[in-house]
Design a protein that fits this description.
1 helix; Protocatechuate 3,4-Dioxygenase, subunit A; alpha/beta; four-stranded antiparallel β-sheet; four-stranded mixed β-sheet
Length: 152
């Protein structure tokens, strides 16, 4: 009986160590994608919801260790239901202490639907990317994983 308890104890220690090592493993950074020519600097207001019909949520994480990044600035802009870029569909928000963010918008009605993002956070490189869905959806998750900034 004591050998079984010892075995179970060692097994639990091994699982805890594996979980700990996994938490220290790097995440794959979100790939950079073109900014396009529709970005307008310094006009996006702070706003969580800019439209209706599509909820986009996710987390901002560090590629170094998959840890959440709080207070990252998440700027986004897109074309809307009419297929044209609209001022009301430009905004920014912040990630919460657990790295999460959520926004509501309308479907980007273009031949290749997409939403542009610029994400900035202390001690990390700026990420310029796009969310490009496979099919039309009402809700999806899109994590934004930032590379660390290197200083000399």
């Amino acid at each position: 009986m004591s050998q079984i308890r010892l075995f179970i104890g060692l097994l639990l220690i091994a699982f805890a160590a594996a979980d700990s090592m996994a938490a220290d493993q790097p995440c794959a950074a979100t790939p950079a994608k073109p900014m396009g020519n529709n970005h307008i600097a310094n006009v996006a207001p702070f706003k969580v919801n800019v439209g209706k019909g599509l909820t986009l949520k996710g987390r901002v994480l560090s590629a170094t260790n998959c840890q959440p990044i709080a207070d990252a600035v998440i700027e986004h802009w897109q074309a809307g239901n009419l297929g044209t870029y609209e001022k009301h569909l430009r905004a920014f928000t912040f990630s919460l202490p657990d790295g999460s963010y959520e926004l509501e918008t309308e479907w980007p009605n273009m031949p290749v639907p997409h939403i542009h993002f610029i994400v900035t956070a202390d001690h990390h490189s700026k990420l310029i990317t796009q969310w490009i869905p496979g099919n039309k959806t009402e809700s999806t998750t899109f994590d934004l994983i930032l590379k660390p900034a290197f200083s000399l």
